[in-house]
Amino acid sequence: MPLEQKIKYESDCDKEFANWVVSQTGGENLRHCIQCGICSATCPLSLYMDYTPRRLINLAREGFKKEVLSSFTIWLCASCYACRVECPKEIQVTDIMYLLKRKAIEEGVFPRRFPIPVLAREFSRMIFFFGRVNETLLVTDLFLRTNWFKFLTMTGLGLNLIRTGRLSVLPDAIKGRGQLRKVLDAIESDEKKEAAK
Amino acid sequence: MKYQYFPGCSLKGTGRAYEESFLAVFKALGVEVSELEDWNCCGATAYMSVDETKSYALAGRNLAIAERGTEDVIAPCSACYLVLNKTMQGLKDHPELKRKVVSALKAGDLEYKGTAKVRHPLDVLVNDVGLEEIKKRVKNPLKGLKLAAYYGCQVIRPFATFDDQHNPVTMDNLITASGAECVDWPLKTRCCGGSLTGTVPEAGLRLAYIILKEAKKRGAQAIVTPCPLCQFNLDGYQDQIAAKYERIDIPVLYFTQVVGLALGLSHKELGIKRGIISAEAVLAGR
């Protein structure tokens, strides 16, 4: 069994990451966190997380980059905003989770078995092409890309949706697709310019 | 009374019973709604995980289109309601972000000022139309029907201005005005699992199961919700929940369907048959 270092020295932490987190929109007041744990207590998904929200916040602001970005925690956040409403220091925990999800996608370090990053990417791609989202196509695409076997377990639900007239096969496209692409492209070139700086 | 209407993708897809019942109820109450022209997807929760600025711009396009009109915008889907309000708040709080979004929208010949007002139909029914007015129009009071008012998360958190974040009551009041009874229960605003029911069912299904089980235990004959994703999760996954935990078998209605029934609208007009768990037995004779 290889020997593993279980406790980090301060010098092992990525201070650059810590500084980046607190410099981002919504991250400014992370250093005010008093570690009271009300976020973890209100979170309905804490029980499945590798780090509870309270721990994740502490890890993020101290610069435990690898642990934070490859955690299940950020992908299990369902955006219910319970923590944000209860936080006595008004930390926007949900938005911190979004921030870390974006960083994890950007660095390609999310846990492979989680289809959520794939869902997010396909979702945005569908909007780029059609302007709207067709739930059926999105889900089909998602399962074919991640776990086609699991797709078979969804056929019951699919049949139920057909029976109740709730399944649309054709994507609903907007007229202003060109306009929407112009807007999204403008942001992309703006971001590229900024990155070049 | 006149409003603009932002349906969102769900109300045109798996949540079409919500659109049907929403439009039918507003028409019956004499409230005019017109669909926002060429609206696009609000970005929901998924887009925020990909690109923050783009997700604000997506919602910004809809808001810019809405600003051409003068009426308030009704967004019945909880995610749309949240995202549109979040975008207005975010762009107000962060001038640099606003500059980027405004200039990107300009590239598409759109002007964003931040003057739209995005409202939820619960807010409009209770505060603009009024409970007294609705009570006056009730033709078919739903006496003896016990319902669990389930609000879900995003309709009241974090931006609700029209209800209490811990113990919302607007939907309870509408249900009572319809002549039905609300069961007392503690899970009004607990998360239904969101998109996790599909992506990480081990976690998502448990969340939906907890809500179904508690509603049943409290004596509810049906759950009532204002959110298309809550309805989908609680209604659509009951077979999978039965396989993993136990069969609960409880129908899940939209609050607009409940109000519509009380106003004397037909099951067909309200899309009652679109429920995967049939509500026909519970609503027999109503």
Give a structural overview.
The complex is a heterodimer of chains A (197) and B (286). Chain A is mostly helical. Chain A folds into two domains: 10-107, Fumarate Reductase Iron-sulfur Protein, Chain B, domain 2 (Orthogonal Bundle); 116-196, no CATH class. Chain A has twelve helices and no strands. Chain A has helices spanning 15-23, 38-42, 53-62, 65-69, 73-76, 82-86, 93-107, 116-130, 135-146, 148-153, 155-163, 177-196. Chain A is globular, with a radius of gyration of 20 Å. With 286 residues, chain B is an alpha/beta fold. Chain B has two domains: 2-119, Up-down Bundle (Glutathione S-transferase Yfyf (Class Pi), Chain A, domain 2); 131-274, 3-Layer(aba) Sandwich (Rossmann fold), CATH 3.40.50.11810. In chain B, 47% of the residues lie in helices and 9% in strands. Chain B has helices spanning 8-12, 16-28, 52-67, 78-93, 95-107, 121-137, 170-177, 196-199, 201-217, 228-236, 238-244, 255-262; strands spanning 2-5, 32-35, 73-74, 118-119, 146-149, 181-182, 222-225, 252-254. A four-stranded parallel β-sheet of chain B has the order 2-1-3-4, with helices on both faces. Chain B has a four-stranded parallel β-sheet with strand order 6-5-7-8, with helices on both faces. In chain B, strand 5 (146-149), helix 7 (170-177) and strand 6 form a beta-alpha-beta unit. Chain B is globular and about 55 Å long. The chains are: A mainly alpha (197), B alpha/beta (286). At the A-B interface, helix 6, helix 7, helix 8, helix 9 and helix 11 of A face helix 1, helix 3, helix 5, helix 8 and helix 9 of B.
